[in-house]
Every structure is written in structure tokens, then in C-alpha cells.
Design goal:
With 88 residues, chain A is an all-alpha fold. Chain A is 55% helix and 0% strand. Chain A is built from 4 helices and no strands. The longest helix of chain A is centred in the middle third of the chain and has 21 residues. In chain B, the strands form 6 sheets. Chain B has a 6-stranded mixed β-sheet with strand order 2-3-4-1-7-8, sandwiched between helices. Classes of the chains: A mainly alpha (88), B alpha+beta (693).
Chain lengths: 88, 693
Amino acid sequence: MPIKRRAEGKALKCKVCERDAAKRDFCLVHLEAYEKMVEKYVVWAKALKTSWREYLSEIEQNPLTGEWIREVTSYLINNEETRNVKEG
Amino acid sequence: MGKYTLIITEKPDAASRIASALDAEGKAKKIVEKGVPYYMAKRSGDIVVVPALGHLYTIASKKRGKRSYPVFDFHWVPRYLAERGATRIRTWLKVISNLAESAAKFIDACDYDIEGSIIGYSILKYACGNKESLAQRMKYSTLTKEELEKSYTKPLARLDFALIEAGLTRHEVDWLYGINLSRALTTAAKNCSGKYVTLSTGRVQGPTLKLLETRERRIKCFVPTPYWSLKAKVKIGGAVFEAEYKKKVIQIKAEAEAIINSCKGEDGETEKIEMKEFQQTPPLPFNLGSLQSEAYRLFRYTPMRTSRIAQRLYLDALISYPRTSSQKLPPIIEYEAILKKLSKTHEYAKLTAELLAKPALKPTEGKKKDPAHPAIYPTGNMPDRILNSAERNIWDLVVRRFMAVFGELAILQRAKVTISINENRFQLHGRQTLKEGWLRFYKPYLKSEDAILPPMKEGKKVGVKRVVLEDKFTKPPSRYNPSSLLRRMEKEEIGTKATRAGIIQKLHSRRYIREESIVVTELGFEVVDVLKKYCPAVVSIELTRKLEESMNEIQQGKETRENVLKDTIEILKPVTEKLIEKEHIIGASLSQALQKAKLEERVVGACPICKNGKLVLLRSRKTGKRFIGCTNYFEGTCKTSFPIPQKGLVKPLGNVCKNCGWHTVWIWIKGKRSWNLCFNPKCPLKEERKEKL
């Protein structure tokens, strides 16, 4: 079910696309991508000792990165939401 | 002419071949009546061979003219009543009916499979006036004269009613699924957007699209993770070989670097040499699925194309009936006679002689059986026309595979040399063929070649040129291509050998998928989402497989048509009710997806200038001219634009120019050859051409 803004009664949109948001302000597609990114960060950190910010920039540039992952990454990089996860 | 035997075939080509084969002088007379060809042959009595044009009858709703759903009442009608543009069928059926009036005996000579059986049955029942119970059945697997004569003189006493019953059920179940679900999707989208676009899904289409969607989801959600591999370049006998580090994947960079450091300046030593002989059994005979896969691997022919080519070769009596799932070659096909005929061709003379010299010919066979036909094999006949290159390729492939299945086991040797460099173990791999066996027959189509290592001894020093660290990333799952998707469908037992290729084609034409390396479009995602949300049963592979099983059971007499149809309606009733209830929401999301799909079709690729915009095909509002422009123009951040020809069809190709890496478009102007255009004005190839001029 889409999250509703109480005051407006309108469905909240995903931060990345125009779809209705499901959780953490992401639609189902981008939420799945975001969760996958967080999961894989553990592997990157162990392999290269990269920070979350470096990780985002690495996967954004990697041609093998999936389209939805890239969309979330670009959003996070451009909107400076990089600290939350690393420290959270 | 007095009373005659009326033979019904599936297609005009088959009618011509059967008539010539059965005529005592081999010269059947062709008559064309109102554009419908049929053939008269003389044997012990008069024979008339009349072809169908594929299916002449189809299923239609009993309520005429309304595009409403749900629809559960149907009947079989001539195709011209159900399909627009099928007016020719009316004349065709009239000619068959007239010929049936003076016929004394009826023989169904359509292909011996589900489709062929239904074609013959419906003509005998409806066009010939309930002659299905009197008719005999010709059963053959090749269109060679000998086999056709044999099947005519010893026909089956009656039609295969179990096969017909199973076929009719399949058609009816598929129709019920297709009509109800497709109408639900189309109506929902139309009522929301006001525009009519055909959206379809079905019993096989839905689960197939879901398979693709699941893979696409994994690709779109893929995060590459780094890993490292090490290779030691070692010098043995004057040549340099690459030995791989024993652990193929190193997940921590520091660990890989530590190994490199410990190898620096060190020599290697051959620690262990392992030789292993292994056998490679001959391949299995081709059935349609494996022929389609192999043709795609070797020539990149789509399954549909291979199927069409194989059908042409069958009609030319060069190969046996291709729509088979069998992996068996029974002795009745006469291996020796086929090989003797093939030996007349210079190309196969030596190879066939080798096989004919064997004391006994025993083919390697697989487990799959087909009650109607053996595996695909060459008839041994030589082409009586010049085959085009694609036909030649498929024919040669079938011939070589046929020879290979009679070949001996191939014996190969694998060598694994472990080289220790300062206690770090690297492995060198080699492969050598000791006895060619069946490989000789299939040589042009073999995958791997020998990698022969020089003679080595354990405990000897090996010079190490250097140890290389390779940065690698895990790769996303590979996309399905027509061949791998076909194999998967076969594995999941969805669809039949005759329908699978058509289903893939349909998904393309509905714009649910695009490109050869299959990409699911926004529309494809949305259709699966709708089906998953509101009627998960119809995209379930389990359900489709269960239905296939039921239909096989009908063929074996263990299940009835009525029961299967009842079950189908029971599944579909609640589904359609839910779809009607949610029509508004479904319509909104489908319309949105349709709009996105339209935009997606215009996307050429990423903008090479601003890097984060997309280049799309646009039309200027001022001048009406079309061009390629960046989507960031509307944000005011990128003004990149390129001219393109104003005439003809333009389609984004999805691939890049080999010279500059920019995306390309496909252009086709009527009357001219199509070409791929790189719109980069500074493409090195263009500069080169300019210089030459």
C-alpha cells in the first residue's frame, strides 16, 4: 500500500521515480534495489575497505551495475544521502 | 471422372508432393479452381489430393460482434467468420466441399501431430459433411516417394481420435485463457486512456513473460562485487603459457597482493602432473528444440527461422518431419539406405563410407519419445533445387548430426600441471584428442579445440615471466536469447514444440520484450505486475504444466475434454471477476506503462556529451523535422542534437558504433537497402572516408 501524507491525503511518490512510494520513500522497485545495495556493501567493504560514499561512486560508474541500482545510486549521490547508511 | 479417393493435406506443397508420389507415372495433374489448387493422380483408381491452408476452422465466441468478457461459450467456425482478411478461406472450403461430394473414400494426410490432426479432422467433419468417422489416416515422417506410397497402401483404419481430442482441448483451453485475459487487459487500458492498443496474454504467454521478468529483475537489481584472480606467465620449452592460481576467486584484494609479493623474483617448479583420459559420447539425434538451439548457437538463426527452414527442407523431402520431440532413430528408417544415398555427395562420401564399413549401425539415442515421429534425420535425397545458404546450413547440420550419432566414442586426455611458485600453487590446463570418434563427423560445428602442452616432468624448474593480478567483477545473470528461452520453456514444460517459437515472437510483437538478447520493456513489467497482483494463477508455471499434463492424459485416454474445460472455466471465472472489479486501477497502470514503452522505443542511448541524459528521437514543433536530441534539453542543461534523414523508418538499434562507441540507429527508406547510421559527426570512420575522398 502506498504511504499517504496525512495532511494532503495524497500518495507519496518514490524519491527516484514517479511510482507510489512503499517504504523508506522508495517504490517497490527502488526499495528492492536499495536493500540489495546495502546488502552488497558488506562484501565491498571487506574486499576493498571502501567507505559507503566510495562504494556508491564505484557502482555508479560500473557498467555491470543494474539499471535500478544505478538510479538509486545517482539519487543518493546527488542528494547527499550518503551518511545515513554508512553510519546506520 | 467417377468416384475417387479424396486425400486432404495440410499445405499446397505437401499436396503436390503426395500427388506426384502416388501417381503411377509420377505426373499428377494440377487443377486450379477459383484460385484453389488441387491435384489429380491415377493409380489403381482415381485420386484427388486437395490441400488446406493450415487451419481452416477456428474457435469463436457464440456471441457475435461484442468484445466483452468473460466469454465461456464458444464453437468451431470457418476462419473467415472469425478473422478479418480470411475471405479466401470461404472459396477454399467451397472447393473442398464440392470435391467431397463425389468422393468415395477419404484419407487424412495432414502432418501426424496435434495441429495436423485437427486440420484434417475439422475439414472432414465440417467441410466434407461428417466424414471423420469414415476417413483413413496416412502416417509418414518424410515426404519421400517410398514412404508416401507405403503410407497410402497401408493407411491407419481410422483417425487418431485421442490425439484430436487432446488437440481440440488444447485449442479451447488456450482460447479461453487468451480471449478473457487479453480482453481484460486491452479493455482496461482502452477505457482509461481512450486509445486502443492490443494487449495480450495467455496460458503460455503469461508464464513465459514471467520467466523473463524474473531474470530482468535480477539484472536490473544487480550489484557487481569485486574479486581478483591471478595468472602466472610461465616459460616452458620456449613457449609462454598462462597458469591460473589454484583459488580462482580471491575476494580480498590484500590477500591477492600478498600472493603476488611472495611470488616476486621466484622461479616455479612442476609439482604434480595429472593426466586423465575421458570419453565423450556421441551427441543425441536432433529434435526440434535441440535443432533450434544448435542453429542459434552456430548461425544465430532464431527458433522461428530454423523452424521455417526445417519445414521447407521437409517439404522438399530432404529431412524428416521436424516438429518432433523424439530423440530416437528406429531401425525402420533404414540407416544404411540413407547413408548410401548420402555417399553420392562428394562432401559426405568419405564419412559415410567409414560408417558403412562398420559391422553394425547403432545410433546414440536420448530418452525422449514422440509417439508420432522419430527424431529429425536426413532422407538421403539430394536437393532438386539450389538451396539458399540458410537452408544449406540447416541441411548440412542435420546430415552431420545424423552421421555423428552413429560414430564411436571420442577419447580425450586432460592434463593438469601444478606449478608451485614459492609455495603458491598455479595450475596449467591442457587438452588433447586421442581418438576422434564421432568428432570427425561433426567437426565444423565443434566448440572447443585442443590445447596441447609440451612434454613436462615433475620436479623440474619453470621460468616465471611474471604474475599478473586481474581485477574482476561478478557478472549479472545473462539475458535470455531466443534459444536459451526456448530451452528453458522446454525444461519447464510450458508450451509445445510447435508453439514455443511463436510465443517468443508474439511477446516481441506485443512489445513486452525487445532485442535479440531479450530485454523486458516497461510494458512487459506492468503486464506481469498486473497478472501477479490480480490473477497469480495465470502466470504460474505449475498451473500451466498441470494443464499440459491433463492434455497428455486426454491423449492417453485417462482424462476427458469436458473435465479439463470445466477446470479451466473454474479457474478463469474468479480471475475475470477480479479483473473487472479492478479495471480502473489496472487500466491506469497499463496506460502509464504504454506511454513509457512508447518513450522507451524512441530512446537511442545515453547522451555522450552530458553523460546523464538520454538521446531520443524527437520532432521539432517549429519545423516538423525530426532529429536526435538529449532529454536534458528540457531541464536546460544539455543542448546536444543531431540531424537524421527526414525520410523513411528510423529505429534505435540498441548497439554501438564499432569505431566511436556512440549509439546507432537503423534507417530504412522504401526501395533502398537499410543501413545503420552512426550520428556522431566526428566518428573516425567518417573522417577516414572524408580523407579518402
